[in-house]
Design a protein that fits this description.
207 residues, Nuclear Transport Factor 2, Chain: A, alpha+beta, 36% helix, single chain, disordered N terminus, 6-stranded mixed beta sheet
């Protein structure tokens, strides 16, 4: 073992020392055609002082770990974008179906059973919303078009909140178009059937 005295790195460019968070530093041996011959001597020389390990395996573990983390991060990002899009579509479709078409048979597609709407100082539950839509739909001869500008969507697990501008243009025969604007926020939860609105707060703007 005298041949290993002195600077071990100088004797072979295929061996290098590095410090890790382990209690002992590591010697990583990079595989080549002769490493199988000197590896046992290196392990014996450093026994009790450092950890001698296969550099190729360590590098493989590092690369695999990095790839797994990258894939997990990408999958997480993709899911967040998908959820965000679904929630924004939920807002758009709920107004198109309920407040433009007055289709009360589809309320459950957009609202939870305990949904509440806060508007103009009033609290509406699902039953009140349904009664309003039935009454408005029976009398309406106008066409309402909805457009949204989404400000922010925040998702935490199966819960989310969203803030947005709600613009409506109401066209009635023989009358000028009525343009309306609300600043709104909503909370949503992810159910087995998909995202559903749990609460909506609406404030009519003065513009």
């Amino acid at each position: 073992m005298n041949r290993f005295k002195g600077n071990i790195i100088a004797l072979s460019p295929l061996i290098f020392l590095s410090s890790f968070i382990d209690s002992k530093p590591k010697v990583l041996i990079i595989r080549d055609s002769i490493s199988i011959g000197y590896t046992p001597f290196v392990k014996e020389y450093f026994e009790g002082k450092v950890t001698v390990t296969d550099g190729y395996l360590e590098l493989s573990k590092l690369i695999n770990s990095s790839l797994e983390n990258s894939l997990d991060f990408t999958a997480s990002q993709f899911q967040e974008v998908a959820d965000s899009t679904q929630i924004q579509n939920l807002i758009q479709k709920s107004f198109d179906v309920l407040f433009s078409s007055y289709d009360t048979t589809r309320i459950a597609e957009f609202y939870t059973s305990d949904f509440i709407l806060l508007e103009n100082g009033e609290v509406w539950n699902v039953a009140v919303v349904k009664n309003y839509l039935s009454s408005a739909g029976a009398k309406s001869t106008s066409i309402r078009t909805n457009k949204f500008e989404f400000i922010k969507t925040e998702i935490t697990g199966n819960s989310a909140w969203i803030a947005y501008h709600n613009y409506a243009v109401i066209k009635s025969e023989g009358k000028p178009d009525l343009e309306l604007h609300w600043l709104e926020s909503a909370t949503a939860i992810k159910t087995a059937q998909g995202w559903r609105l749990k609460m909506l707060h609406s404030t009519r703007t003065k513009d």
